[in-house]
Amino acid sequence: MNLLKSSIAASLLMAAACPALAANYAWPERFEGVMLQGFYWDSYNGTDNTKWATLTSLSDELSQNFKVIWVPNSAKAASNPGMGYDPVYWFTNHNTAFGTEAQLRTMISTFKSKGTDIIEDVVINHRSGVSNWTNFPAETWNGVTYQLGPQHICSNDEVAWASGQAKPTGAPDTGDNFDGSRDLDHTNAEVQNNCKNYCKFLIEDLGYAGFRYDMVKGYSGKYNKIYNEYSRPKYSVGEYWDGNYDAVAAWIEATGRQSAAFDFPCKYAINEAFHSGDLTKLVWKANGTTDQPAGLIHFGYPQYAVTFIDNHDTYRDGSKFNGNVVAANAFILCSPGTPCVFWPHYVQNKKAIQELIAVRNACGIHNQSAVKVLKSTSNCYMAEVTGSKGTLVVKIGSDMASPSGYSNSDIKATGNDYCVWSKTGGSVVTPPTDPGESFKVYFNNATSNWTTPYIHYWGATESTWPGVAMSRTAGEANVWEYTVPAGTTGILFNAGDGDATKTPDFVAVANHIYTTSGDQGAFNGQGGGGETPSTYPANLYIVGNLDGYDWASAHGIPQSSKTDGEYHWTEVTFVDSNDGSAYFSFLTQLDTTDGEWDAANQADRYGASENDEPLSINSPATIRKYAYLVDAMGCAAWKVAPGKYSITAKLNKMQILLENSTSGISSFDSENAEPIYFNLQGQRVDNPGKGIYIVVRGNRSAKEIVRD
Q: Are 387 and 32 in contact (CB under 8 A)?
């Protein structure tokens, strides 16, 4: 598969070169929970119904296995009884075939008391009228009346050609058309205001924890970003129904990474693998070389991937999974991403699926867990997955292979064509925050320069907006600290004036330091996050607006020398980026495969603390580490005047120093400079033999073939 080669290649290049992405994620980092789709098509009928009262009666069982349950749209729709995908009401009528509003509120509060969150199927791409195609109801919430009309319907909606109906006057649709209800014009400010407050109502009034956005192909993903930033859901996942990796990843990027997406590429890979009997389809190559699980979970997007085998739609059309249901669930439950189990699969295979969830939980497998594929053949998929409390190995297929280092006593779950081994304890890294203890967080005020930074926290308890004043850290000019209470999961910072200066939402991690851009890592006592000397990278490469190679991930300039955690460049020439300035950051790994940013973003990166942070001559600045799969693709760049410089990166102090170059050699004399050879892993080679190398001449570098 060609990763990120088409629709999102440009956006990734911009993310690599320019500002860091906001950290107001609407899906938690390192999330260890499993999700349940608590319904199927027409599941308000029959003895196996999923009405609100039925789910409430099962809350003890379900809450022991699932941390999130997705339920249908709870507002009254045009089809009644029906599934709610042709909604009429948003704010005022939540009485449907699934139950009354009172029963809905009881269900949500009951599960919340048992530690399980409920998310709603939010349908805002389209809407139905009360008695005709366009007469949407006027609804009042919190003293404000909301109403949409024909002016809020896309001008190319089919109602434009219907007789006896009001004509739409909105802008053309920004996505796919939906026949059956009116497509809303999300470019319209009033539509946006209705959607924002509807989402806020669902959270603040009904008590939902987040949303499953229906048919997000119907409008631009940038509007989901607007709605999430306003309503601040704990969870957001979009139904971008497309089996193409690039297309789904592009939608996640369009939301500003403010939403996860259902991993349809993974679902279709699972379908194909089990249908064809070729389990190699469960594996894709990360960067063309490394075996990883198929789908969004294999590279770059595991935090934003909600994996599944079937849902209410696929279960009743040609996309239905027809293979070994439990083995397929073993694959997603023993992989990163957030697995979403389908209700009929759970009910029909309850004991086996509960057993698999128990193994996942015992090992602390989370949505960003590392995976090492051990074997990939037509009759065997085997992988080792590392969690916060242990490791597991999952084997899918008829092969009787067993993993090295595990014995039969380590088998925790087994069945037809699947087996799971696990080990817990030992040297496994524990979660960064103990939910049972209060912990300290820090804020670097150097660039924001607020008189007194304030912190607003939430989780088990929530501070009163806009938060509480922080205290200056002893011995630090710009660092402030605060001890948040046990159970804190999220934080943001402001100047005490609330919305006027507030940062995005950040995940709360014990003893980490933050700036307005986000988490800088563990506080190291020098005003920033840092790494220990034992983890210094083998090489650092400068990338940016370089003479001859403008933001070229395959042609970074390696250090001229390195000593004790300090990396030195004697002369680097930066050129104008067309705005009078130049920008750069550091890579720890070049992408020599195809010149895209795939491999570069697999490794840790180092950059500025703030977006486009200016660097001055002889004035040290803080280096921030952008960890692999956390926010490496949003590595912030430094800003300098075009020219030639000497540069020192002191990772032992997490500082960078910019100096005027003392060399008299012109940048245009690089071709005459003595060549320095590096292999494709970035290691210097003094006597290169026949092969392919990165060759550095002065301030230029290129990939060259040595033939003899």
A: yes
- Beta carbons within 8 Å of 50's beta carbon, 6+ residues apart: 38, 39, 40, 43, 44, 71, 98, 343
Question: What tokens appear for 195 in the block?
Answer: 């959607």
Rounded to an integer, what distance in angstroms lies between the CA atom of residue 113 and that of residue 104? 14
d(C-alpha 520, C-alpha 219), whole Å:
34
Token pair for residue 520? 């800088």
Which tokens belong to 638? 């430094």
Strand, helix or coil at 557?
Answer: strand
Sheet of 488-494: strand order equals 468-469, 454-459, 488-494, 506-507
Whether pTM exceeds 0.70: no
The secondary structure of 411-453 as a DSSP string is EEEEETTEEEEEEESTTPPPPSS-TTS-EEEEEE-TTT--SS-
Tokens of 18: 């320019």
Residue 708, C-beta contacts closer than 8 angstroms, at least 6 positions apart: 690
Residue with the larger pLDDT of the pair 647 and 634? 647
Q: Tens of pLDDT along 351-379?
A: 999 999 999 999 999 999 989 999 999 99
**What does the pLDDT read at residue 524?**
67
Tokens read off for 21: 């992405």
Instruction: Indicate whether 647 pLDDT > 80.
Output: yes
**Which sign, positive or negative, has the C-alpha torsion 311, 313, 319, 325?**
positive
Distance CA 472, CA 480 (A): 4
Q: What is the DSSP letter of 161?
A: G
Size of the chain in residues: 708
Distance CA(621)–CA(614), nearest Å, equals 9
What token pair was written down for 74?
Answer: 């709870």
